[in-house]
Amino acid sequence: MKISRPQPATIISIAALVMASTGSAVAAVSFARNAGAVDHKSAVGSGATLSHAAGKLIATQKHGAGKGTIAAKYLDLSGVAHGTTSTFGQSFQVVDNATSVPTQIGGIPGLGPLTATCVDQNAQVGNEDPQTTITFSNTSGDAVNQSRQIGGNNPTVDAVLNGTQTSFNINGSSTFELHLERKGTNYFVHGVVRQDGRGTDNASCLVYGMAIAVSG
């Protein structure tokens, strides 16, 4: 039997099929090699050294308190302030013609505690008039700079010596702001005092707010 010579069109079709198959294989290998890359930058684990991580993507941490975040060693945090925030809320029932035990509502390690009391300033029995006192006790070992403001009035600016206390009274309902500073550590407090039941035998004080501590 005589075998016919393939037509030129057939040869071209076979060659194209071979090239297409080969190209798919090459593409598959290339995809497998770069499956973990974005914009041609392969990712490294969060434990990689800085030199190994240079020019690559950084994976987030798998475990610990920083789980799901990028480790700080890969971030340029120079010049960025570090701080913490907190809130407080304390209700005080006024005791007729009696003193109150200070209750800590805030403070920062290295500066000292912030406390509040609520007392009856009316000597008449059964007629309570609550007064709130906010006190900062300096336990830092050094003088602490202070600015305080009540109800948006002009602030009082002074220094609190080590081992001493500074207090301010709030009669009625109002707001207060306190700013303490020592060696670059700043502590900001914005608070609200609400006093209820004045003139009755069941008065109370509510102190609440937020604080921000910032260090350089």
Question: What are the key terms here?
Answer:
single chain; 216 residues; mainly beta; Immunoglobulin-like; 2 domains; 6-stranded antiparallel β-sheet; 4-stranded antiparallel β-sheet; 2 helices; 13 strands; elongated
Spell out the helices and strands N to C. HEEHEEEEEEEEEEE
Major sheet strand order: 4-13-12-11-8-9
The best one-word shape is elongated
Count of DSSP helices? 2
Query: Would you give the CATH topology of the largest domain?
Result: Immunoglobulin-like
User: Helix coverage percent of residues?
Assistant: 10-25%
Derived structural class: mainly beta
Distance between the termini: 94 Å
How many discrete structural domains?
2
**Rg for CA atoms:** 35 Å
CATH top level of the largest domain is Mainly Beta
Number of strands: 13
**Average pLDDT, all residues:** 83
Q: Examine the secondary-structure arrangement and name the CATH architecture of the largest domain.
A: Sandwich
List the helices and strands and how they pair.
Elements: H1 8-33, E1 37-38, E2 41-44, H2 50-53, E3 57-58, E4 82-93, E5 103-108, E6 112-120, E7 130-137, E8 144-150, E9 156-160, E10 165-171, E11 174-182, E12 185-196, E13 204-215
Parallel strand pairs: 2-3
Antiparallel strand pairs: 1-2, 4-13, 5-6, 6-7, 7-10, 8-9, 8-11, 11-12, 12-13
